[in-house]
Amino acid sequence: MIIVFLxxxxxxxxxxxxxxxxxxALLLRRMGVPQPLRVLRVVMPSQLLVAAALIWAxxxxxxxxxxxxxxxxxxLTGIAGAAIVWRQRRGNV
Length: 93
Hints:
The protein is an all-alpha fold. The chain is built from three helices and no strands. Keywords: Membrane, Transmembrane, Transmembrane helix.
C-alpha cells in the first residue's frame, strides 16, 4: 500500500512540475507556432533537475516544512518552465 501512495505522490509532483510548460506548448501549437513541443525536450528534464537540486538545498539548509517548500519549489519551477516555453513564440529560446 505504501508503494501506491508514494507512486501517487510522485505522479502528482510531476504533474505540478510539468503541466504549466506542457499547457503553454499546446497553446502555442494552437496559435500556429512551428514546433512548440520541441523545446520541451530540454525544458522538462531541466525543470526536474532544478527542482530536485532546490529541494535538496532547502533540506540541507534545515528548513522545517518539507511539504511547503517542496510544493513552492515545484510550482515556481513549473511556472518558470512555462515562461521559457512561452518565449519560444518569438524565437528567443
